[in-house]
Structures
1.
Amino acid sequence: MAAPPPSIQFVKGVGPRLAERLAARGIRTPQDALYLFPKGYQDRRRTVPIRDLSAGMTVPVRGKVLSVQESGRGRGFFRGGARLLEVVIADGTGRLVAKWFRYQPSLAQRFKAAEEATLCGPVRLFRFMPEMHHPEILSAEDTADPIHSGRIVPIYPDVEGIPPRVLRKIQWEVVRNHADKEAECFPPWILDKAGVPPLNESLAAIHFPKDDADAAAFREFSSPQQKRLAFGELFSIQWALERRRAGVERERAVPLLWDREIVGEIKRRLPFELTGAQRRVVNEILKDMGRPHPMHRLLQGDVGSGKTIVAWIAAMVAWKHGVQAAVMAPTEILAEQHYRRFASLAEGLPVRVDLLSAAVPAKEREAARRRIREGETDIAVGTHALIQESVEFRNLALGVIDEQHRFGVLQRTALREKAKISPHLLVMTATPIPRTLAIALYGDLDVSVIDEMPKGRIPVKTRVVPEGGRKRVFDEMRREIAQGGRAYVVLPLVEESEKLALRDAVRTAEKLREAFPEVEVGLLHGRMKPEEKEAGMRAFKEGEWKILVSTTVVEVGVDVPEATVIVIEHAERFGLSQLHQLRGRVGRGTRPSHCFLMVGNVQGEEAEARLSVMERTTDGFRIAEEDLKIRGPGDFAGVRQSGIPDLVFADLVRDARMLQTAKEIVGELRRKDPELSSPEHEGIRRFLARRTATVAD
Ligand code: ADP
Ligand code: MG
């Protein structure tokens, strides 16, 4: 057996006390410390003349102390400290004010008028004068020390109980003595193909960049050495996806071939002509279902592109084979809607459709569960209720998951496990996932895209409206309602305070009732019982309510073609993709529709600029890309649940090319050595083992 790894305690300058604090952060060995990376960098290679400072720079400045001034002593909020210490230094090219708002009294003593001082911190401008708040003070000793100055200095994340400078010193020792021992895990051909330098060189540079390095590149995490680590992250994602995919391909499934008879039956029942895109994806899906291996396909199509009918067709083919299909939707309203749609499309045929959701009374639910178990149910439609333990299928052979972004990999797996032999799986999403993200999220799925809207759709007219424009919005609503239209008014669900959100919704409904005394204004919110929600939704659908005020319960899938106006309150609180989803509630009929994005006056220009994308395009993919740029992938629907680890170096948007390269490399590797059993790949095996917890299997 190999010797146990050395403890961090024996790194110079650590000792038992600091070792304990490091251990609290999961750092027990020098190797662990090597993977505690800087979160940023400061370029302290040269001091910069004050005249050349500009806002946002973080650089050292050296000058003579002109004045040291403390104010607010005793009145300070922080007992024992003063409120403000101001030190002015000058270097012959200008003056700089350093400010500390909270400090130990001894700090002021470190400055003596007329002596030299070196300060380093982020520069800001205040009345055209450069300032630094809470800069680091570099002593004469420091300025001679190659760790804390005269170089591009790493800034580490805070580790409780260890001052930043002490931590930096520890890391210096760790890198000096241990970076070289980190064996490269990838063979040279992979590094070549990825275009990145070897690991040990990268580790050393990431902690302490060389003097001639590009400081800006390091700060942006785009230096070649940081790319080496990014590559590792992307590689491990791709590897896990590829394995999952290969696993599915080896499994066997019941082939569900279509035949003339069922296709004829389906065609006779279609309420409209399929679009070219719908026909194409139906072909792709039916081809998959005919194979003796499970289909694993993602159906991507913008809101309103007509995915439901595609799912229905697949379910009908399963029915023809006498096996069961399950259709899972994220909300009760949506499940109910699918249930009705599926049942009515198959009317007159002996197709038994059952609904399973919390909205169904317990007794009926029990009966439905029994029918599902005994195989009387042909198509089971429902919510999460479908994958509960108590549900047992007799011969499930097709699973459909609608609005996949609301579910995670786990639910996908749970549904698969309801079948005795691997079912065909179709997952549908209306969130137009940017391609790059789709590879990472759904790299194990084949993808079909509906990229065409049903004929006759008129793009929704969208306006960002400040509070002052509300009257015009109301006028528009009135006009539309008079012509048989209906209006949604949507409020954001304030997650921290459902109560507040509810109060907001109730108040909005009241205001609307005052403004529109001639029509019924209904209210839907998250606190309502499922049957109340459903009743409300029906009242709106059937036209009893003309205006529906709701928290975002209407977000997904609901289909009310008569609705021609949607007003989204506090639009600035929503992500663009979510707004796009909401907007998809209208524009489903043949009349032109309107979307009003209300922004509070205080939100101002920034919000309007961000939201203006919505005015310019109705292309969900473009909106998603935009959203991704603004918010980053972590916030993107589905990413959190997807099992993708937090990425430190890789950025799924910026590193799209590298993600693709990683995919190719993984493909090549799997052809050469699928189990990584050759000694040449020992390192990769080790590396992946360390990252096992990364992508959920
Ligand atoms: P989504 O893709 O958002 O789930 P739906 O399946 O709910 O969209 O379809 C949106 C609306 O478009 C529904 O009212 C549906 O009946 C209608 N629809 C779907 N396909 C077509 C088509 N080919 N022609 C006309 N209307 C269609
Ligand atoms: Mg849908």
2.
Amino acid sequence: MRLLIMGPPGAGKGTQAVNISKTLNIPHISTGDIFRENMKNETALGLEAKAFYDKGMYVPDEVTNRIVEDRLTWDDAKNGFLLDGYPRTIEQVNFLDQILAQKSQKIEKVLELTIDVPVVVARLLKRAQEQGRIDDTKEVITKRLEVYASSTAPLLTEYKNRSILIKVDGMGSVSEVEGKIKTALSV
Ligand code: B4P
């Protein structure tokens, strides 16, 4: 299955994607994880991404698109994948459509995790205490939510119009949300 998981920062995309990808036996591809790994190792990509990431801004499309294009050529993604945190802009949607069309493929389902803003802010501030992620300060969280609302939330309409959008309530415990996703995907 070729699947996307979308939702605001802190909705639990990464948390849920780990389990869904295991259940479906497809790779979990998170652009956020790829950036963090590169920042940790201080690669050229990591240094480029950091300037945007730590302000709560999106990394430029040409950088992010290149990474995804390369990652989707790996053997493990031949029969499906779960993309987490990508696409986030209309340019990324169009780019993804193009690279999949070249292989006569398309996205089959898009999971949207819905959640209230105060809940995501609380989750991200808790993660800040536990993990010290540089983009989990109150100021940067506010910026990330604004960027999500203006650049990413409108993409959901595009997938709704394609009749592939599945909304799942992201409130509740990790296992409760996992149960709701499995029901929604019938897996
Ligand atoms: P991401 O890594 O995608 O980060 P996120 O939106 O914060 O995470 P997510 O929704 O996955 O939340 P999580 O499960 O971790 O992006 C970070 C940055 O990378 C972006 O701001 C941008 O700069 C850059 N970037 C990434 N992709 C890009 C793209 N395509 N284009 C441009 N730039 C891009 O959950 C959050 C917390 O909540 C965790 O601590 C978790 O333990 C907790 N949690 C999860 N589910 C819970 C539950 N049910 N109950 C209680 N707590 C829960």
